[in-house]
Automatic annotation (TrEMBL):
Keyword Zinc-finger: no
Residue ranges of domain HTH merR-type in the record: 1-68
Designated name of the protein: MerR family transcriptional regulator
Alphabetized UniProt keyword annotations: DNA-binding
Keyword check for DNA-binding: yes
Protein origin, superkingdom: Bacteria
SUPFAM superfamilies linked: Putative DNA-binding domain
Organism per entry: Streptomyces xiangluensis
InterPro entries, per database record: DNA-bd_dom_put_sf, MerR-type_HTH_dom, MerR_fam
Length: 128
């Protein structure tokens, strides 16, 4: 199938499909006309890519894990690179969450400290 048909079947725009190809996630062949031609299983591959992106994985991580990906869920087969890749990504997310939590608390502290300095009359009336 051509890129337009794959786009219609998956709901993914053609430029995104070309990006997935550039990232090594999709491998179309080239027809005699030079157009990209996708195998029928490209619909499944695109669905897998979208779901893994929704899980917060990068295209680089997805490319690394693709040999372990099957099914529409997608299901992940327990191959060696899969578990270590997922654990690495999970650790990175935990670190980001910790950083964001600290930042949120620091901002909350600044807001509370600043609010305490607002004259009492202004707080009650909702004045500027």
């Amino acid at each position: 199938m051509l890129i337009g048909e794959l786009s219609r079947k998956t709901g993914v725009r053609a430029h995104q499909l070309r990006y997935y190809e550039a990232q090594g996630l999709l491998e179309p062949s080239r027809g005699a006309s030079g157009y990209r031609e996708y195998a029928d299983n490209a619909v499944l591959t695109v669905a897998q890519i979208r779901k893994l992106l929704d899980a917060g994985l990068s295209t680089e991580e997805i490319r690394f894990l693709q040999p372990c990906v099957t099914g529409t869920a997608p299901d992940l087969e327990p191959c060696p690179e899969l578990l270590e890749g997922l654990r690495t990504r999970l650790r990175a997310l935990d670190e980001q969450i910790d950083t964001l939590t600290r930042s949120r608390q620091a901002l909350r502290d600044y807001v509370e400290a600043t609010e305490r300095r607002v004259p009492r009359d202004s707080r009650m009336s909702g004045a500027e």
